[in-house]
Amino acid sequence: MYGLICTHSLLHLLKMASGQLSRAEALACTGCRHACHVMLYSDTKSQLFRHIPIRHIILMQMRFDGWLGFPGGLVNLSEESLEEGLSRELLEEIGAAVPISVENHVESCYGPSSSSSSDLILHFYAKKLEEEQILDIERSAVSTAVDHGHEVLGMVRVPLYQMKDGGGLSSFLCHSFIKNARLQLVDGLLRFGLISAEELHTALGLSVETHK
Ligand code: GTP
Ligand code: MN
Ligand code: MN
Ligand code: MN
Ligand code: MN
Ligand code: MN
User: Fold this and answer.
1) 94 in ligand 1 pocket by Cβ < 6 Å?
2) Interface predicted TM-score (ipTM) of this complex, two decimals
3) CATH number at residue 118
4) Where is the Nudix hydrolase domain (predicted)?
5) Most buried residue, 4, 38, 147, 189, by most Cβ within 10 Å?
6) How many domains does the chain have?
7) Burial of residue 103, with CB atoms counted within 10 A of its CB: 0-12 exposed, 13-18 middle, 19 or more buried
C-alpha cells in the first residue's frame, strides 16, 4: 500500500515537472517537429555473477554524440504516422522490425526550449518483448542496422541492481542523457513496475551524491 502511494505521487511529480501534453494535443501542433523514441524491455531470469538478479533487460543506446538515449528519431507526419515513423527509425537503428502501435504510447512533451525555429515535441513509447526478441535485437543492432557505427555507437542495457560500492543503477544515472531521456527512463521504470519506488529513490539519491 505504502509503495503504491509512493509510486503514484512520484509519477505525479514527474508529470508536473516535464511539461506534458496528450498525444492529440501534440498532433494538433502542425508547425512542430515530432520525434518518437521507445523503451524496449523484457523480463529475464538471468543473474549477474550467478547471484544478482538482473530482473529486466531494458535497451538504450550510446548515440553518435556521446549521449545516452532510446532508439527512435524524427518522424515526418506528411508521410507517416508517429508509430510508422518510429517503426522505420527502429529498422534503421536496431535493424529489426518491431511493430509499434498507439497502445505503446506513454507520454508526449515539448522538448527543452532551444534556439531552433520550430518547436520539437518528444513522444515516448514503451513495449515489452520476450527475452528472446530482445536478444535478437541486440544481435541485429550490430549485424544489420544501417545506422550501426554511424548514428548509433551501440546498444546498452540499463542495470537495475544497486551495488554496495555505488555501482549499478545509481552510477548508470550519472551518465549524460540526451534531452529528457533520463526522465523518460525513470518514469518508465516506475510506470511499468520494473523497480520499486524505494529502490529508485535510493538510486537517484546516490547518483546525486556521486555527481557532486
Ligand atoms: P537523423 O536521422 O540523423 O535525423 O536522427 P534521428 O531521426 O534518429 O533523430 P534523433 O533520434 O536524434 O532524435 C531527434 C531529436 O530527439 C533530437 O533533437 C534529440 O535531441 C531528441 N532525442 C534523441 N533521442 C532521445 C531520447 O531518447 N529521448 C528524448 N526525450 N529525446 C531524444
Ligand atoms: Mn568478468
Ligand atoms: Mn535515426
Ligand atoms: Mn535516433
Ligand atoms: Mn531519422
Ligand atoms: Mn538517420
Assistant:
1) no
2) 0.96
3) 3.90.79.10
4) 31-187
5) 38
6) 1
7) exposed
108 lines ligand 1 (CB under 6 A): no
pLDDT confidence band for 2 (50 / 70 / 90): very low
How many Å lie between the centroid of ligand 6 and the Cα of residue 143?
17
What's the DSSP call for residue 42?
Answer: E
Instruction: Determine whether the shortest distance from the Cβ of 122 to ligand 1 is under 6 A.
Output: yes
pLDDT digits (tens, 9 = 90+) for 101-141: 999 999 999 987 655 556 899 999 999 999 999 999 999 99
Identity of the residue numbered 184: Q
Q: Provide the domain limits for residue 13.
A: 2-211
- Give per-residue pLDDT as tens, 15-47: 555 578 999 999 999 889 999 999 999 999 999
Tell me if 151 CB under 6 Å of ligand 1.
yes
Count the helices and strands in the chain (H runs, E runs): 7, 10
